[in-house]
Amino acid sequence: MSQEKISQEDLVPLALLRAMGGNLQGKTRLQKLAFLLDEEKLGDRLDAYHFRKYDYGPFSKGLLEDIEDLEDKGLVDIHRSRTLGGNTRYDYEITDVGETIVSDIFSRGDASIILEDAEDIAVEYGDLPLRELIELVYEKFPEYKENSVYQY
Predict the structure, then answer these.
(1) Which one, of 11, 106, 114, lies nearest residue 63 by Cα?
(2) DSSP state of 126
(3) Which of 13, 88, 95, 106 has its CA at a distance of 20 to 30 angstroms from the CA of residue 79?
(4) What is the pLDDT of residue 65?
(5) The domain containing residue 19 runs over which residues?
(6) What is the domain-level CATH number for residue 103?
(7) Angle at CA 92, nearest 5°, toward 86 and 97?
(8) Residue 37 lies in a domain
(9) Predicted TM-score (pTM) of this structure
(10) 82-123: pLDDT as tens digits
């Protein structure tokens, strides 16, 4: 696996995974943390994903495609399980190969700022219960409540 195959966009989910201790639980949590990283930290420095208004607030199809691509490259494991309600739950874990490559990438120059920003987001929002995380996103960015199926 060569580092040249890691896109700038791939650095967002990889940095979030690294900042969250290698594990991130749930597709919705991934979306919200990536959105907050994009909006509050990265700004115009890296416009990795386009988020649209969706069922639980900001959603990026590109983010999901990229993390699945990272799974195909062997950098991320996606654990799929059934919830009591019959839905599929997605949990993400950085692999040993992924950790080695990510460590090297983030130790160099410009990429390290993305990891620092992701660590700030993880510290501030990473431990919030999902319900609180969604509500926080809606409070900070009320335009994303439009189209939402989530009511609070």
Answers:
(1) 11
(2) T
(3) 106
(4) 96
(5) 7-145
(6) 1.10.10.10
(7) 145
(8) yes
(9) 0.91
(10) 988 888 999 999 999 999 988 888 887 778 889 999 999 999
